[in-house]
Amino acid sequence: MDYTKQSISQLKQICKERKIKGVTGKTKDQLIVKLQESDSEFVVGAVLPVPSSAAVDAPPVVFKFAELLNKVELGECIEMMKQMPPNSVDMVCTDPPYFLDGLSNDWNKQNLDNKGSSSVVGNLPKGMKFDRNQSKKFHEFYAKVSIEVFRILKPGGAFLSFSSPRLYHSMAWAIEEAGFEIRDMLGWVYTQSQVKAFSQDHIIEKDKRKTTEQKEELKELCKDWKTPQLKPAIEPICLAVKPIEGRYIDNFEKYGVGLMNTSTETKVGTDANYFPANIVVTDETVGQDLDKVFLVAKPTKIEKGSYNTHLSVKPVNLIAHLIKLFTKKEAVILDPFMGSGTTAIACIQENRQYIGFDINQEYIKITEQRIAENSV
After folding, report:
1. Element (H or E) spanning 174, and its range?
2. 226 and 247 in one domain?
3. What is the pTM of this model?
4. In the chain, at which residue ranges do the beta strands (DSSP E only) sit?
5. Using 50, 70 and 90 to split pLDDT, how confident is the model at 34?
6. H or E segment at 258?
7. Is 69:306 a contact under the CB 8 Å cutoff?
8. pLDDT in tens, 61-109
9. 210 neighbors 125 (Cβ within 8 angstroms)
10. What is the SS3 assignment for 121?
């Protein structure tokens, strides 16, 4: 429910029905805070008591918050987040599906797998065929996600979201529109990646308007020219923050978020004595200077699990680094696109609590297996 749309008398009536004391003389903002704090106490199936004249623009809370902790639920993340209380999560860290096949409820990994036995279709990863409308569709999708993330994050809470370079602008725009402050862009740098640019030979060969001689001449002319797609070497991560209440110190005292951890556990580099930077490096071959910034290896088969069929598994150490930067121990981290469970593993490793959603039952099972192996 959007309490800001209620009058003071309506808010007091809701407080009365919830048996919330100490409302006399409170301002509207103070009443809203009391109601938001009480939201998390509602049990499964409970319906928010509101006056008949009050406008209700969100479904009733049907989750008891404690029952979500340290679990990964099967479901569409937007609908799942709508059932969570506001200001209840310390951080959201996620790697959303930014390919078109992954934007709708009818997404099916098997459909992608059936396109071929390899991990690519043509010269692009599955689902990543160029589409001029992809950026617009992704923006529309992520705007809905970001609205719910904004609602459930505590003031000062960090929202870290991975993206592809080509779609980063759409993602950041959607996040900012939801009310977030874009504070930085982190870059995950790596050297092991697939070249996606391709030559024009096959297009020339199919051109029925040209003679064989003309085709050969054109092929020679274009032999060193490919489609405008540079080899991927960076994955951008948007760092957004829900606006704080009052001063940073006031917000941190109240919610435990809003400031960044710069203790020894987040220092980076080969000697772990450098201030955290907005570039993180995967491969030692990148260069000694960049290694000093932050070096994290790509996940090995052992880390991922031999049974892991996820298309894009992030390193546990990378997610763990981000979690430590913006949360304290025992903080609650949400990953609305949990995938094969890397965020959950990082939370277990760093003594944080997690909540995860995913629409793919296969990934849920993989996550549960990885969690079981890391909880021994």
Report:
1. helix 168-177
2. no
3. 0.71
4. 71-74, 89-94, 120-121, 124-125, 153-162, 181-189, 234-241, 279-281, 332-335, 353-358
5. confident
6. none
7. no
8. 456 788 899 999 999 999 999 999 999 999 999 999 865 444 444 445 4
9. no
10. strand
